[in-house]
Amino acid sequence: MKGKAVFLTVLLGFALAQGRLEAGLYAAPPGLAPALEAGLSLEEGEVFLRLAPFRAALGYGGSLALGPLGFFAFGLQGEVGEGGPGGVAYGEGGAGPFALEGRIGYRPKRALPLFPEEGLFGRLALRYRPAPKEVLGLELARATPPRPFSFGLQPGLSPWRLEGSYAFREGATYTFGAGLAPGPYALLGWKGEVGEGGEVLELSLRLGGTNRLEGALFLGEASLFLTLSYPWAGSVVAWLGDLGLEAGYEGAPYAWVRYAWRWP
Amino acid sequence: MRKLAAFLGLVGLLSLGLAQSAQDILDRVEKNLSTPWQATVQGRIQGPGGEEELLARVYALPQARLFRVEFLKPGSLEGNFTVITEKEVWNYLYLTNQLVISPREKAKIQGLGFAPQGLGDLKALSEQVELRLEGEVRLPEGVAWKLVGRSKENQGFAAMELYILKADPRPLRFVFLDEKGKVLADLKVVEFKRTNLTEAQLKRYPKDAQVVRR
After folding, report:
1. What are the structural domain ranges in chain A?
2. Which of these, B200, B173, B177, lies nearest to B187 by C-alpha position?
3. Tell me: the pLDDT tens digits for A180-211?
4. Which residues of chain B lie closer than 8 angstroms to A98, CB-CB?
5. Burial class of residue A8 in the structure, from the number of CB atoms within 10 Å of its CB (0-12 exposed, 13-18 middle, 19+ buried)
6. Which of A87, B137, B158, B206 is such that its CA lies 20 to 30 A from the CA of A188?
7. What is the pTM of this model?
8. Most A CBs within 10 Å, among B72, B93, B105, B109, to test the A interface
9. Could you give the 3-state DSSP secondary structure of residue B102?
10. Which CATH number does the domain A1-198 belong to among 2.160.20, 3.30.750, 3.10.450, 2.40.160?
11. What ipTM was assigned to the predicted interfaces of this complex?
């Protein structure tokens, strides 16, 4: 009885506070896996919970806003599940001409779709803006995708990646770069507005030690992401408002459907 | 003796009149700037790299209480912009491609030495600063009222001076000062024009930006 009251109080707390809930279903051989992510906004920051078969995480994410000067977000998540405990820490943001993204974590065994990384994984990306229209970037990553989770599972990543890039903006943004993954490769990128309302198309191609084409189209209410890499792996992701649809292939086909609620 | 009393009375009346008219002047500005306008603001600020030049475009849709400040200088802020709506402040950051949305009360800006919100929205500024009329001064644009005041709460500056053009009531110059009277930002309105603007233009942002709600 007491447990029920506590549960109802917690549920009511969630309903009254500002929060989000993302529920999904992941399908890949041999079967289906449900996935749930819930976040509860606090005065400063958010407490979140992630659940997928045989792994659960509890975490806190906070942020610091510096008005037009910059923004910094940080977080910590602790995990329990198959193979033992794990955790992730991250900090990312920018101020003035500098931006940084740092993420490090450990997990004994992956649990798709919410916990795609395995072993020791991490990423450090630095960006510096020497002139208003130019950005220099340096990135070192191990076994973790370069894009946020909303871009999907991003299959076909190389285990290691060290990349340097130079981007300049002249109407559109052009990116040139080179990296090791572990073999040397070249990077070409283009990003620009394709509509009157701020719609954006982004394309990047990596050839050599890693072979990968990435495309993204942002239309506001809808977004589309495409990833294609060789040896063959790839995915197509569509976000239609709060509905996310993903289909991909990496050794075997998979699909992921998710829906996000936000309140109030 | 009677003359002196009359003179003192007149001074009293005048000072009362001056004390009352800061609000009156701000009301006149509000009335004068009730249709869409845009301006360029130029000057010196205490930016991320010490004292820096600031160049920004201000767009205003006063009837919707909607304002947009686009930064052109310093270089590290180029491409960044701030949108002020009735309830929220949006800050777009070019380098990280993020749109950070905060409720107005949470969006106090420290470390810039001035409040970008105030450049367009004098009404909001006058709620944060207790302004009074100090007198009239002659500026290149014409005779201007000089309003001075202290910040009611910590806005990143302690006091400010505001110059309003008398012939066409609108702001000409903003000076933000710290506790010791050191100038944190000295900004002049160099180009002003009434123009057609829409809500969609002022709220425009790249659709690939990561939207962060605080």
Report:
1. 1-198
2. B173
3. 998 999 999 999 999 888 899 999 999 999 99
4. 95
5. exposed
6. B206
7. 0.89
8. B93
9. strand
10. 2.40.160
11. 0.90
